[in-house]
Amino acid sequence: MEIWINPACSKCRSAIGLLDAEGADYTVRRYLEDVPSEAEIKDVLDRLGLEPWDITRTQEAEAKELGLKDWPRDEAARERWIAALSEHPKLIQRPIITAEDGTAVVGRTEEAVRDALSR
Predict the structure, then answer these.
(1) Nearest alpha-carbon partner for 112 in 7, 12, 20
(2) CB proximity list for 111: less than 8 A, separation 6 or greater
(3) Catalytic residue among 1, 2, 9, 71
């Protein structure tokens, strides 16, 4: 199990606390420092069953500078979104937990973190 975190994020700290309390075996990835490649983002999206715009923090200043709210959300624009997430990792929703069964969850709630633990 791996968890992508920003240590400054309270949701990330809560998820780590719950994983620790449950004795989970996991690896921390500080994704702002160890930036995921486009291929890694695609893999996580496949595991999540989501599209890149579904895990994009559109209220961030960088998102507004890029004009992401106006970008198309379709298959033709998918690669552009993925490239933006790789180039601007702060835009990636957090925390993302990859589960042992090959799936992943966005662990913003206790229920989502527990779901990842149960897989």
Answers:
(1) 12
(2) none
(3) 9
What is the predicted pLDDT for the residue at 93?
97
Contact 51, 45 (CB under 8 A): yes
pLDDT score at 100 = 85
12: annotated active-site residue: no
Residue 48 is inside which H or E element, if any? helix 38-48
Tokens 């160890």 label which residue?
Answer: 34
Residues 15-28 have pLDDT tens digits of 999 999 999 999 99
Average pLDDT, the chain: 96
| 36-52 average pLDDT score | 97
Q: What's the gap between Cα 66 and its chain centre? A: 19
Interval 49-67 mean pLDDT = 97
Q: Which residues contact 24 (CB under 8 A, 6 or more apart)?
A: 1, 117
Dist CA 91 CA 82 (whole Å): 11
